[in-house]
Write a structure and sequence with these properties.
heterodimer; A: about 230 residues; 10 helices; B: 4 strands; about 70% helix; globular; disordered C terminus; binds adenosine-5'-triphosphate; binds magnesium ion
């Protein structure tokens, strides 16, 4: 059974139906991506899964229902979201942001994970006392990802980690995402940049106006002429 | 007697009390962006409850040392106010968390009126006097007088504020409070139970209010169902002066406002050739509030970086 199992997920804002009943699976240890144009409903899907917006349908993590739980309880089940726009605590120091990532943890491995995050992002280690709001955009993205890792998530949800970053930094962030995936973390990656997302993921879903229109292995989708025309610009 | 030093001392005493109350306003504002107008009334309830306990013990056959009686009053007032603050948030503000900002603000004013009138029904309209349990030893320094009570108020407030500062800056709860103040959504994504953090904020603010209420009634020797109004307004002004939402700002604003008020009251007679007397003291707080709102609306230590991640 899939680690994340979503069935008939619907999210609506008043009269606007942003997500119209989608099915989605992410297996343990998989890196799956969800691509689609602006306004397709990708962020709404992630916000629905994490309980930030009211969602109907069924959401299960390793068989356990998450639907209806408050966001903090879903986080404690092991779901970490790096939100669109990063959502770092701008007035907290870098290390305090990372400590917030481990807020719900009571185990002894926190220091170890902190060392691992600093190893993954040496730039954060150099800036551990810096006020997070003064970091560059790329550093903030590293911090947001590092903070999510500090919770030792069973499922990591990433919402457009490449947004607003220069190509070199995008490359760096994506290398790190792949490294994290190789360490066995299950990832659902949301991206507009289909090219990048299809390169790093094993499977992909394509979303359009609130519904999933295509699903398959990333290789298949990357060579699909319709996808090439619509998302890969070739 | 040196009037400057004397008024400085008086101002610091009053300012310490303002600071304790201002902290309650600023912490709640920091997290909910709500001006909890009922906070002054929580302070009043603290004074009233403590006085009721003190009066009951002092009037009974028990022959306890005066300071022990006062301590008993404080120890009852603190949990009473904490329960009150917790309940106000849960019953009056929580259901309005997603409502337009005006709704909880008006509710706060409503809660304040309810508390005032309840206090009037329970304890009456008359002033309740603080029994003479606290020794009034006075010391002379630099040509001014300072009483034991004044020294005690300044020391205890300083200790409490240092403790609060440590809690907010160093503890896990404090970090969660600061994170929640920046983004409730992201804090929840970290596993923070935001409702609990908000409750904790009200509990802490109300405990400080209880202590401040007892201090002010011991200092002036009386309490009254209406006392929370002016005290609350001044503490709110102090919070705005320091930069509302900023904890160090509330401490600084409280102390500054107390000193400005006391110096103003001390010199206004001379400055106006005796035309205005020291009973114009209250004017200064609001004069300062207006100046701050005009020239530096974000307050002395207020956020200059508007960016919210
Ligand atoms: N808070 C909201 N209130 C009302 N409508 C919203 C809200 N959030 C999103 N929507 C609408 O829901 C639809 C889906 O938005 P969503 O943010 O999920 O898209 P997206 O796929 O993440 O887009 P992007 O790639 O631009 O981030 C859009 O039409 C958007 O306008
Ligand atoms: Mg989005």
């Amino acid at each position: 059974m899939a680690l994340l199992q979503v069935r008939g997920l619907k999210v609506a804002y008043g009269g606007i139906r942003a997500v119209r009943g989608i099915d989605l699976d992410v297996d343990d240890g998989e890196l799956v991506c969800l691509i689609g144009a602006n306004g397709a409903g990708k962020s709404s899907t992630l916000r629905g899964i994490t309980g930030l917006v009211h969602a109907s349908g069924e959401i299960r993590l390793a068989g356990k229902r998450l639907g209806g739980l408050p966001t903090h309880a879903i986080a404690r089940e092991g779901v970490a979201l790096v939100p669109e726009g990063r959502g770092i605590f701008a007035r907290l120091q870098v290390w305090e942001n990372l400590a917030m990532g481990a807020y719900a943890r009571r185990d002894k491995g926190v220091d170890e994970d902190l060392a691992r995050v600093y190893e993954l992002f040496p730039r954060l280690a150099e800036r551990r006392q810096q006020i997070a709001g003064t970091l560059s955009g790329g550093e903030q993205q590293m911090l947001a990802i590092g903070r999510a890792l500090m919770s030792r998530p069973r499922l990591l949800l990433l919402d457009e980690p490449s947004m607003g970053l220069a190509p070199l930094m995008v490359r760096k962030i994506y290398d790190t995402i792949q490294a994290i995936a190789r360490q066995g973390v299950t990832i659902l990656l949301v991206e507009q940049n289909a090219h990048l997302a299809l390169q790093v993921s094993a499977r992909a879903y394509v979303m359009e106006s609130g519904g999933i229109t295509l699903a398959g292995t990333s290789g298949e989708l990357a060579s699909d002429p319709a996808i090439q025309a619509a998302y890969l610009g070739s | 007697m040196d009037i400057f030093i004397q008024q400085l001392i008086n101002g610091l005493v009053l300012g310490s009390i303002y600071a304790l109350v201002a902290l309650g306003y600023t912490m709640v504002y920091g997290i909910l962006e709500l001006i909890n107008f009922a906070h002054g009334e929580v302070t009043m309830i603290g004074a009233m409850v403590a006085l009721a306990v003190i009066g009951a013990i002092a009037g009974s056959a028990l022959d306890l040392p005066g300071l022990l009686v006062v301590l008993a009053g404080v120890l009852v007032a603190i949990p009473a106010c904490m329960l009150l603050g917790f309940t106000i948030e849960k019953v009056a503000y929580r259901p309005l968390r997603r409502a337009p900002r005006l709704a909880p603000l008006i509710t706060a004013i409503g809660v304040s009126i309810v508390l005032q009138n309840s206090a009037m029904l329970i304890w009456g309209r008359q002033y309740v006097s603080f029994p003479p349990l606290i020794p009034q030893n006075s010391h002379e320094i630099l040509g001014a007088h300072i009483t034991d009570l004044q020294i005690f108020i300044i020391l205890l407030s300083t200790l409490i504020m240092a403790g609060l500062w440590l809690l907010v800056q160093q503890s896990t709860l404090g970090r969660a409070m600061r994170a929640t103040a920046q983004s409730k959504e992201v804090a929840a994504l970290m596993g923070v139970n935001v409702d609990r953090v908000i409750s904790a904020t009200f509990l802490i603010g109300s405990a400080l209010a209880a202590i401040a209420g007892v201090m002010v009634s011991a200092y002036y020797g009386l309490a009254h169902y209406y006392m929370g109004f002016m005290l609350g307004l001044k503490a709110f002004s102090a919070a705005v002066l320091g930069g509302i939402g900023n904890i160090a700002g509330a401490m600084l604003g409280g102390l500054l406002l107390g000193v400005i008020e006391a110096l103003g009251a001390g010199y206004i007679g001379d400055l106006t050739g005796g035309f205005l007397g020291s009973h114009y003291q209250d004017v200064f707080a609001f004069f300062v509030l207006i100046l701050v709102l005009v020239f530096r609306p974000s307050g002395l230590l207020g956020e200059r970086v508007a960016s919210r991640a």
